[in-house]
Write a structure and sequence with these properties.
Blueprint: E1 2-9, H1 15-26, E2 38-46, E3 52-60, E4 63-71, H2 74-103, E5 135-136, H3 138-148, E6 152-157, E7 163-168, E8 174-178
Parallel strand pairs: 1-2, 5-6
Antiparallel strand pairs: 2-3, 3-4, 6-7, 7-8
Length: 181
């Protein structure tokens, strides 16, 4: 059973919007096991240029499905985001079924016990790198990231003494991941 949390930023969530989001996302339930218990988080925003953005997140055991879309019509953005989620589910199903055939077991349904039976060593890591993190400020880390042409950069935050990651955000600006134990 899916439980929904639909909220808006700079936008009032009407009953019509709530019902539309729930009806569209509920069509994805065919991909889940009957006993699925999950929360669906939908966040709608309106920007100054009148663009609407919808972010839909479905955290599950072993995988988090997430899609975001921006459009002038909120309903169109919901449709596009649900299409993205459906593609993610199909891709995930293909991956799980392929791994299942390689390991000698068959999966019954998408996202049902998706990672059970798979050992960590069955994942294909094409490359493993070791990092030496240096103490620096967030601004210095962003500068280093830009110099390298990367989308993210790990560093030792000189203010907190903890490992952090700066990254480029799709919309605007940068983000920081603060690692905690």
């Amino acid at each position: 059973m899916l439980r929904y949390q639909v909220r808006g930023e700079n936008l009032e969530i009407t009953q019509a919007i709530r019902e539309y989001v729930e009806s569209k996302v509920s069509k994805l339930e065919k991909y889940f096991a009957d006993s699925l218990e999950a929360n669906v988080y939908a966040n709608a925003k309106v920007y100054k240029n009148n663009k609407k953005k919808i972010e839909i997140t479905v955290p599950l055991k072993g995988v988090t499905l997430r899609a975001e879309e921006t459009n002038e019509d909120l309903y169109a953005a919901v449709d596009l985001a649900v299409d993205k989620l459906e593609r993610q589910m199909r891709k995930h199903k293909t991956k799980i079924n392929r791994k299942g055939r390689e390991k000698g077991f068959i999966t019954e349904n998408i996202l049902t016990n998706e990672l059970e039976g798979l050992e960590e060593s069955s994942l294909d890591f094409g490359k493993v790198k070791q990092l030496k993190v240096e103490a620096m400020t967030r601004d210095e880390a962003v500068f280093e990231m830009e110099l390298l042409g990367h989308d993210f950069f790990a560093f030792l935050d000189s203010n907190t003494g903890e490992i952090s990651v700066v990254y480029k955000r799709r919309d605007t600006g940068y983000g920081v991941l603060e690692i905690s134990k």
